[in-house]
Amino acid sequence: xxxxxxxxxxxxxxxxxxxxxxxxxxxxxxxxxxxxxxxxxxxxxxxxxxxxxxxxxxxxxxxxx
Length: 65
Prior knowledge:
It is a single chain. The protein is rod-shaped. A 3-stranded antiparallel β-sheet has the order 1-2-3. The protein has a domain at 23-65. By secondary structure, it is of the alpha+beta class. It has 1 helix and 3 strands.
């Protein structure tokens, strides 16, 4: 169940005690931020993976020389 708060732009969810924005613009902005964070984390993982592969390649090259 959701109830009004002192600020008309927000509601409180009584089951989770969460404060919820009522306007779609805030929801859209929040989703964009979450997507950006997920993309950054994905890129970090890919860069780390590439670094590990490069290190392995360099070690193999050093052993051959």
